[in-house]
């Protein structure tokens, strides 16, 4: 056990997030003109796991800056091999900015130091929150034949699905400003469009694997607290004209009594029931829904915490 993994959590967790969008696009599909993602057979809205992970990363970076142990590995316009090279220098290996030719250097270094894999993994996990949490594929190390190049994170999210079918709309908008001098001669404004969902309530289920945290990344209780904080606030600093009004309404956390768990995840998730009220034909707010928890379906050894109450 390394110093990094010694701090790992000792309990398994499962969690469910309820969040909504009003007059916005929670996750556009670039292959469909950036329209909100839907299940084409049912009309149920979809938000990808990587979309929510991005918001969690952004929040952690915003409040902590670029300092260990809260640094973010996957961030906008920062070459990953720059951060990989930083790790190599930290463990005494002269890196190479050319990823395609670094393989020989790393294979030689590994022969000289059998602990190289562990040293690099410990450095990356101790510095970068998102690697400790979600894992990562680090191409530089993969090309060098190092096992630490592929890290499976203890925290995983499924795709979010809307409780009811959504009905995406394309709204035409105008801009009073024009683009070029030539345009000024024959038009007074320009037109565009934006895609919105009038209202949608989404649910995402997630998992925290304590065994994986203990074995690989050292995801700790401090990291766990940061994760919950980031989830609760992930839309608060992500507002934009495209996304409209988005908010986390509820976060349910199931804490097991040990690292293996006391019940299958699906049984715990099934204990949470979300449905629009019988008298509501077209939901347009969170208050149009009933959210109930069947506590009799939850083992006594599993502790349920409702971390936010909408």
From TrEMBL:
It comes from the Bacteria. Coiled coil: none annotated. GO terms for biological process: maintenance of CRISPR repeat elements. This is Type I-C CRISPR-associated protein Cas7/Csd2. The lineage of its organism: Bacteria, Bacillati, Actinomycetota, Actinomycetes, Bifidobacteriales. The gene is cas7c.
């Amino acid at each position: 056990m390394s110093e990094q993994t010694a701090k790992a959590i000792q309990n398994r967790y499962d969690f469910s997030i309820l969040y909504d969008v009003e007059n916005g696009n929670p996750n556009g599909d670039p292959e469909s003109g950036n329209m909100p993602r839907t299940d084409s057979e049912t009309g149920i809205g979809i938000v990808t796991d990587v979309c929510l992970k991005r918001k969690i990363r952004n929040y952690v970076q915003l409040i902590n800056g670029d300092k260990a142990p809260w640094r973010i590995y996957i961030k906008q316009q920062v070459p990953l091999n720059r951060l990989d090279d930083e790790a190599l220098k930290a463990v005494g290996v002269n890196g190479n900015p050319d990823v395609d030719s670094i393989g020989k250097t790393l294979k030689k270094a590994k022969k000289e130091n059998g602990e190289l894999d562990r040293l690099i993994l410990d450095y990356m996990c101790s510095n970068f929150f998102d690697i400790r949490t979600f894992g990562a594929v680090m191409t530089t190390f993969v090309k060098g034949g190092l096992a630490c190049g592929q890290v499976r994170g203890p925290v995983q999210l499924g795709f979010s699905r809307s409780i009811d079918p959504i009905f995406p709309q394309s709204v035409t908008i105008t801009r009073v400003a024009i683009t070029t001098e030539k345009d000024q001669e024959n038009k007074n404004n320009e037109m565009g469009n934006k895609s919105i969902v009038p209202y949608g309530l989404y649910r995402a289920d997630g998992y925290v694997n304590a065994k994986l945290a203990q074995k690989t990344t050292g995801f700790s209780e401090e990291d766990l607290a940061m994760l919950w904080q980031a989830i609760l606030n992930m839309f608060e600093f992500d507002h934009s004209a495209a996304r409209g009004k988005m908010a986390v309404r509820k976060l349910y956390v199931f804490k097991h009594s040990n690292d293996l768990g006391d019940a299958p995840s699906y049984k715990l998730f099934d204990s949470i029931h979300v449905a629009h009220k019988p008298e509501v034909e077209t939901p347009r707010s969170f208050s149009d829904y009933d959210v109930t928890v069947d506590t009799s379906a939850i083992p006594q050894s599993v502790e349920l915490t409702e971390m936010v109450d909408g």
